[in-house]
Hints:
Blueprint: E1 5-7, H1 9-39, H2 47-71, E2 73-75, E3 90-95, E4 98-105, E5 116-118, H3 122-127, E6 135-140, E7 143-152
Parallel strand pairs: 1-2, 4-5
Antiparallel strand pairs: 3-4, 3-7, 6-7
Amino acid sequence: MQNIQYLTEASLKNLKIELATIRDKTIPDIARRIDEAKQQGDLSENAEYHQAREDMSWTQGRVKDLEQLLQNAEIIHKSANNDVVTIGCTVTVIVNGKTKDYTIVGPQEIDPVKGFISNESPLGQAFLRHEVKDKVEVITPAGKQVYEIIAIK
């Protein structure tokens, strides 16, 4: 069984666009570079050829990654029930006297600067299935932190 990859609709759309761009533009461009480098003769010392082959290898790996992501994608739908923390929720917490917002997303969409944390991260896992007023303890590199959930959106 494959791992479910939780994505927002926007992220799913962006990944599909990236895959189409790679297939329709990037791979043919790299193939042309390889062909042009082959026409130059001796391949053993042809840096352009070796770089193009390396680029093609990376690109083909990315295609496989994207195909697997898309095959196992599940769209995050915001729950109408804001009583319990689920994937897609924004959780407002108090930690160390400060109020912070965290949005629980799949690992493909994490952005700590924006407060997007993965459902697979220790903090994301700790929040899941908790309710407003719950206190959640998480072991961090700085030691044990207690987060009090004050709102779920």
